[in-house]
Amino acid sequence: MTLVTSLNVSHNSIQTVPAALSFAICLRRLCLASNRVEDCGEFDIDQIQGLEHFDISNNLLLHDWPHGLSQAKLLKVAQFANTSLPIMPADIFVPNLQTLNLAGCKNGAAELSLALHKCRRLETMMISKCRINELPPVLGRLQTLVNLDISINNLSILAD
Question: What distances in angstroms separate CA 119 from CA 25, 65, 76, 98, 138, one per listed residue?
Fold first, then answer.
């Protein structure tokens, strides 16, 4: 499987991301959406140096951020929608990230890390259905952000 560039294993019953995927060095797209993933185990995303698109959305039991996310230098799209991820760790920033989907994350993932402002290419962010009461302060620092979905939240005011 070392020559595979796009792998879609969505809509299966996978519970842990296999560590062996870390060695699929040619992968550009990895879709693990709509499984039963609870954690990423020993899977280390930064080992897949050319990975551009990572989708692990619709895994309601996922409660750990993938190892090595900050070192995934070519990652452009990160889909974490409808997971149980906790608050984004302060050290997570992906330099080439253009799209971040956290829609439906109700356990704090949408409480965005201030380190996210280092994602200088972030253009699209989805934080709908996250039970947000106020806009995360980091949004004001995202100078390349052009698409923001904050629908279906608990906002009562947009800005002070």
Answer: 24, 17, 10, 8, 11
Enter the pTM of the model: 0.91
* pLDDT band of 94, cuts 50, 70, 90: confident
What's the whole-number mean pLDDT along residues 91-102? Answer: 87
Between CA 128 and CA 74 the distance in angstroms is 25
Please state, in angstroms and rounded to a whole number, the distance separating the CA atoms of residues 77 and 131: 23
- Which are the contacts of 160, defined by CB distance < 8 A and separation ≥ 6? none
pLDDT score, position 136: 81
Q: What is the largest CA-CA distance in the chain?
A: 52
Give 126's strand partners: 101, 149
Kindly indicate the confidence band of residue 99, based on its pLDDT and cuts at 50, 70 and 90: very high
The CA distances from residue 95 to 8, 16, 115, in Å, are 24, 27, 11
44-75: string of b/e by CB count within 10 Å (b at 16+)? bbbbbeebbbbbbbbbeebbebbbebbebeeb
